[in-house]
């Protein structure tokens, strides 16, 4: 889109994103995104679900079953949609996103939110850290080459999910009341709640695509056209997380075992596990890398945040720690039980 104002677009141009297709509508971040999109009342939402999936999409969503290996079925499912949101499980074959993007281009999709929901993959030290973040530059270049626009949500790790994910993530073994600190446990990293991720995406896609003309100074999607959007709820250390857990549960500090390990050592051990075929090591490598004590996990300091522009509410830390506690009590497990 070369013209920067809505008034200069071709006949038939709509300055709103109305029809949205989402892959992963029942997933960890896909579900709150879908629910918030429906709450706006401005969008029709279609969920693309793979053959054999037993996931239940939120009420009010049209569901279309597709075969990711059948490009024609993907194109048919995406025709007439304005935007494609991709949220894939870590167990999804790695070429799935590229297949979806090829089909999106053929179907005439205008805007894509790719499968990028987490740390600042635009930050070269993280992009070049030997993890799977390095593919971001090629990913978005490919989207642009196909004539589509993109916006990536940089939100840090999901707070509640990560707190109960196990010691490889934020270091918490909640069953054993044990915490493994990266270094001294005082490194601050940006994190977001799942609900806030949903609100951010819904707010973005409810904005006008372009300003109407030169005098129109309202916020539009064009601010984040082919750019990342940065949000965060909390800038926290592991010790901050523990303090919140103690407040919420009534546990005492002396009932917990606290250990320390260099983040560099944890990172290297995670990478080695991945090389040996243990993909659980990827979690350890990713989280410990973001906790390096050099500020890589503090994108708020480098980039600033878009929370205020998007008019996102201020979240309460203990409220979301309490939600994490409920998830833990329900037996939440990313791989086997996401209820």
From TrEMBL:
GO molecular function: oxidoreductase activity
SUPFAM superfamilies in the record: NAD(P)-binding Rossmann-fold domains
Annotated NmrA-like domain residues: 18-121
Pfam families to which the protein is assigned, alphabetical: NmrA
Gene3D superfamilies in the record: NAD(P)-binding Rossmann-like Domain (3.40.50.720), UDP-galactose 4-epimerase, domain 1 (3.90.25.10)
InterPro entries found in the cross-reference section: NAD(P)-bd_dom_sf, NmrA-like, NmrA/Isoflavone_reductase-like, PCBER-like
Keywords assigned: NADP, Oxidoreductase
Domain of life the protein comes from: Eukaryota
PANTHER family reported for this sequence: CIPA-LIKE, PUTATIVE (AFU_ORTHOLOGUE AFUA_1G01630)-RELATED, NMRA-LIKE FAMILY PROTEIN
UniProt-recorded name of the protein: Oxidoreductase CipA-like protein
Lineage of the organism: Eukaryota, Fungi, Dikarya, Ascomycota, Pezizomycotina
